[in-house]
Design brief:
The protein is mostly helical and 194 residues long. It has a single domain, classed as Hypothetical protein, domain 2 (Endonuclease III, domain 1, Orthogonal Bundle), CATH 1.10.340. Helix content is 63%, strand content 0%. The chain contains eleven helices and no strands. Helix 2 packs antiparallel against helix 6 and helix 5 packs across helix 6. The protein is globular.
């Protein structure tokens, strides 16, 4: 995968997300109730921990080979990969199991074999932890940053697929874009409270 992304200030973590579709999907899974940069930096850190403790890389089969307690320990190690390490480790395990079982351990098949943006959206929403907005944002991320989404992705991901707006991780292409995303989210929260 190739893309113009700035999902975390760590260039190594961004490069890792470009090279590992499963890491990118995990980053999206973790992107809730913590800063976006932390969520998308976590797969790189998880990969380092897997290599250190088990001599394995971050791929779906590695995750499913661990028992839940082992994965929770990796998520909980300081610094924790998420504010809720136990819950997110469990969701990560469920996600890995689906990729192994339904996509033959090929994460990119989730989008490469989808016949339309709508089908991709349905596939993503079937994953634990992927609600409607999260699935739409990931479709937009694939379409905008990686040019890897199937035809119809713009409509399937609306409003996140709009070219003229900066509102989600799908638009994270630079430090400036990251700041715009933060400002957009803050304005949306303020409007919701008003």
């Amino acid at each position: 995968m190739n893309g113009d992304i700035y999902l975390t200030p760590d260039s190594d973590a961004n490069d890792y997300l470009k090279q590992n579709p499963f890491a990118l999907l995990i980053g999206m899974l973790l992107d809730q109730q913590i800063p976006m940069e932390r969520a998308f930096g976590a797969p790189y850190l998880l990969n380092s921990r897997l290599q250190e403790h088990y001599g394995q890389s971050l791929i779906p089969t590695t995750i499913v080979s661990l028992d839940e307690d082992q994965l929770i320990a990796l998520f909980s190690e300081k610094p924790a990969l998420h504010r809720f390490p136990k819950a997110m480790a469990t969701k990560c395990l469920l996600l890995a199991d689906r990729i192994v079982t339904d996509y033959h351990n090929d994460t990119s098949a989730v989008w490469e074999e989808a016949s339309s943006g709508e089908e991709l959206l349905r596939r993503l929403q079937s994953f634990s932890g992927f609600g409607a907005d999260k699935a739409k944002i990931f479709v937009a991320l694939l379409g905008k940053r990686f040019r890897a989404a199937p035809a119809g992705w713009e409509q399937a991901s609306d409003p996140f697929g709009r070219k003229d707006e900066v509102r989600s991780v799908a638009d994270a292409s630079s430090p400036e874009a990251l700041e715009q995303i933060r400002n957009f989210k803050a304005s949306m929260k303020a409007a919701a409270k008003a």
